[in-house]
Every structure is written in C-alpha cells, then in structure tokens.
C-alpha cells in the first residue's frame, strides 16, 4: 500500500500525554531514521511535557492536528504518544475539514480513541501502528517492513500470523484497538457503529480482573451481539506473567457464543515487533 514517496513531508504529533524531555534524543534518532528513508519530519511544537503530564490543551493539540491535515505538503501524520489524554482533542477536531483533506494517520494505545473517531466521524482509514517502532529493539526489520509497505507497495507490515480460537471465517471492517482506551468512547458521539464490524482488542498492562471487567463492559454495551468477529492482539502483561484464566479463556467465557469467529495474534499490540492494522478497512481471514 504505497502512500509515501522519497522526499515527502510527514507530521509528528503527540495528542495524548506529553513526552518527557529526556526522550528528545530518541526523537532525534527517529528524525534521523526518517531522513535516511527520504522522509522529512515536521514536528509539533507540543510534543513535550509543559505542565505535569500536559503538553498543551486539547484545543491546542487539535488545532495542530487539523493544520497538518490541511497542509497539502504533509502526506501522512504519525502520533508518537500514548497514555491517557488523547480524548481531550476529540471535541475540538473539525471532522469535515479532515474528511476534505484525508491522509493517513497513525497511532496506537491511547490513540485508539483518535483513530476510531477519525474513521467514524470523517470516514477515513487510520492505522494502528507506532512509528517509534522504527527506533525500537526490532528497528532493522521494522524499517525494512515500513519501507516495503508504505514506500514500495508491498504488504510486509500488514501480514500478521494468527491462530484460530473458534470459527473458520472472519470478515468485516476493523474497529477497536487498546481494550481500555477504546472503551473511553462508550456513550459518546465518537464511538463507531459495531454492526457487522470486526473488533480488534489488545493491551499492554492489566491483570485478570481488569480484562474481565473491560470485556464485561463491551458485553453490556451490546458489542458482541453486533460484531462479526474478534481479533485478539498481544496482551503483554497477561501473557508475560502467565495469568490464569488467560485472555482467550476470558473472552470465550464472557462472549459465550461459539458462532463468533475469534483469532489470536501476538503481532499486533505494544511490542516493538508489532505489525500494522487498518481501522476502517475490511479484513477477511480464512482457516
């Protein structure tokens, strides 16, 4: 899926928690890596913490994001943040303006609220992926896959390995992301319609009790009666600490419907080796 060319400008923003100033060296490394790929990074002036964890108001960060969408020289936008604050920008975004100036937007974790809102309110496809993977522990393969996928029209970053938990066929438009953060859209005008969607869920932290209560809330929202399938990504703490019941056992118990196809992958989530998945695009998986 080629979306970038050598010499293109890309925007770098932080719509969630501000980065610590100590991270400046990593951002410089990211800038250098993008430069080696032939991409010019345009950085938001609201990347770093200014007051406590805040790197500006919701309106300030939303204005920065809108201006990057409106800037025709910027070909894609990457969010480098995470945490808890991303939903502060939602009410200040001009979704019609973003729709008129549609371009790829990338983010993960707490940015689940933004990528799903942009899909639902503006009708654009967004990308669950963290650009900081290019300077992480698996940087070499990430850079290779990034270049092949977004600059050479291959699918390296979209091809993920998975196992079937139940069912044999899964088909629908993908919504979701981080299990906790996505729930912040519940009851708001920004949450996507779940009818005939495939729900993606992943998590960095959280024990059995937290996963159980999150999944129960999805059930009480009626989500599992609407969707056509579930993709379980990496549940880092649950899996690293080998909690029981595990995430597969939990979701099978709470969903309580063998007719909902479920697949499990360790390649979508918070890991430095994570692949990319498109929110708002149809996916089809067959056993």
From TrEMBL:
SUPFAM superfamilies: Class I glutamine amidotransferase-like (SSF52317), LD-carboxypeptidase A C-terminal domain-like (SSF141986). Signal peptide: none annotated. Residues 10-127 form the LD-carboxypeptidase N-terminal domain. Pfam families: Peptidase_S66, Peptidase_S66C. The keyword Hydrolase applies. Residues 172-285 form the LD-carboxypeptidase C-terminal domain. Keywords: Carboxypeptidase, Hydrolase, Protease, Serine protease. Belongs to the peptidase S66 family. This is LD-carboxypeptidase.
């Amino acid at each position: 899926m080629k979306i970038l060319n050598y010499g293109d400008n890309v925007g770098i923003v932080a719509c969630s928690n501000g980065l610590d100033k100590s991270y400046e060296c990593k951002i410089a490394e990211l800038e250098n890596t993008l430069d080696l790929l032939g991409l010019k990074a345009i950085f938001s002036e609201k990347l770093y913490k200014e007051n406590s964890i805040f790197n500006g108001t919701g309106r300030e960060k939303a204005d920065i994001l809108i201006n990057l969408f409106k800037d025709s020289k910027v070909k894609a936008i990457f969010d480098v943040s995470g945490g808890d604050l991303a939903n502060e920008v939602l009410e200040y975004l001009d979704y019609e303006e973003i729709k008129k100036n549609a371009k790829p937007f990338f983010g993960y974790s707490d940015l689940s609220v933004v990528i799903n809102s942009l899909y639902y309110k503006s009708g654009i496809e967004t990308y669950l992926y963290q650009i900081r993977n290019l300077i992480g522990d698996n940087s070499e393969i990430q850079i290779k896959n990034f270049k092949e996928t977004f600059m050479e029209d291959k699918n390296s970053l979209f091809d993920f390995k998975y196992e079937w938990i139940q069912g044999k066929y899964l088909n629908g438009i993908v919504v979701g992301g981080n299990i906790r953060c996505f729930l912040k859209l519940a009851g708001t005008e920004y949450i996507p319609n779940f009818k005939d969607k495939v729900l993606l869920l992943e998590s960095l932290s959280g024990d059995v009790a937290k996963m159980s209560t999150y999944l129960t809330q999805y059930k009480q929202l009626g989500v599992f009666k609407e969707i056509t399938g579930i993709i379980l990504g990496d549940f880092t703490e649950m899996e690293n600490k080998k909690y029981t019941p595990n995430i597969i056992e939990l979701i099978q118990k709470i969903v309580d419907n063998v007719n909902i196809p479920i697949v499990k992958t360790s390649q979508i989530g918070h890991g430095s080796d994570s692949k990319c998945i498109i929110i708002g695009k149809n996916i089809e998986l067959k056993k």
